[in-house]
Amino acid sequence: MSVINVKGTHDIIGEESNAFAYIENLLKQICDLFAYSEVRPPVIEHSELFIRGVGEGSDIVRKEMYTFLDKGERSITLRPEFTAGIMRLIVQNKLLATNELPYKVYYCGPVFRYERPQLGRYRQFNQFGVEAVGNNSPEIDVETITLAYTILSSLNLEGVTISINTLGDDESRNAYKEALKAYFAKYLDKMCPDCHSRYELNPLRILDCKVPEDQEIVKGAPKMKDYLSDAAKERFNRVLALLDDLDIPYQVDDTLVRGLDYYSETVFEFHYVSKTGNDYGAIGAGGHYDKLVKELGGPDAAGVGFSFGVERLYSVLKDDNLLPEDINNPVEIYIMPLGMNAKAMALSVASELRLNAYRTDICYEDVKLGNMFKRAERKGAKFAIIIGDDEVNKQEVVIKNLTSTEQKSCPLDKLVETISKEMGEDK
Ligand code: HAM
Fold this sequence. Notes:
By secondary structure, the protein is α+β, with helices and mostly antiparallel strands. It has helices at residues 14-33, 47-53, 59-64, 83-92, 95-98, 138-154, 170-185, 193-201, 212-219, 230-245, 292-295, 310-319, 340-355, 369-379, 389-394, 415-422; strands at 37-38, 44-46, 66-69, 75-78, 103-112, 124-133, 161-166, 251-252, 263-271, 284-289, 303-309, 333-337, 360-362, 383-387, 396-401, 407-411.
């Protein structure tokens, strides 16, 4: 029996792989414009980091982590998200003491969650995200949302819904949690087993329950906005006013609570349903946190960030034909050697062309010339270079323009010059 991939994982091949590179490069360039620099934390961390960071009450920690004992009997987890690992990296390397604040970073790579695979939901997927740490102002929340908005606009994703809410400060959240507990206590015996543990660990999580009967009960639950302290209200209103100033569209959604426990104050999510009607779930999400750095042994510093799901960005861009046509980097020149000696010459001709930045490929198989032309066409090549024994003897090649079908002989020492002229460019 052959071995296949693990459930919930997927191979990223060909055009999809090029699209991922396009998305990630564009996002990196925009992060660069916003003065964020890249960090690359490890994929594995001590399990305790996520238990403390993401929170024992979160679904991620309760049931979705890939955790194992390594050969030294340490409990290790494949990162289920980046934020906790980035805070560990910042604290351990004392980056808040040695850099201007906020310390702003971006990151990209695979994350792992043992979830039920479905449309847009994998067990290994890629996130691209940012964190700005060491500043507690509403302005930095707004810069972060502006960065996400700029990314979405640069990807030509029009019509993304930005849902935003505030979870308030500690005072507001504690008051709200008490109110939720009092409300849900009346219905708990009718609710799902998950909601029972959410009730104990973090009643805010109940608002996220996807069980239809529970959602009906959630509809009547108290609203966060009625429990906000004056300071929390003022902070949130300032965030909204600054977004208005910047003409960034948003919808306040007072049911938005997010699935990770570290958030406080501003939280947000980005949704986009492609024109085909496919809804892959949120394409990105994030928010403000003020206890995470301290919880992990660092100074009292707040942060804000978001992560996009790269698979989900790819899916909506692909569905709505928003990927640029040239992401596939087609071969420009296809070399067709006829025979052993010609193959040897093809290798040196290809090297020279590649050194001069022409995307070049060689036909290594002994197929008929007609078949080689079909391959050139499939690869999207503009030119074919044909080499037979005659050409080897004369140290020249035949260049064929595959659009005009014109062909001419060309001495080897004039090859790059001729190709450059034929391409109509200054190389
Ligand atoms: P999250 O909402 O758990 O937030 O994930 C962020 C994004 O990752 C989601 O909006 C979605 O696009 C993508 N995603 C999540 N789960 C899956 C999955 N199973 N398959 C495919 N894509 C998925 C976080 O991870 C936070 N760390 C975001 C953040 C950064 N908050 C502050 N800073």
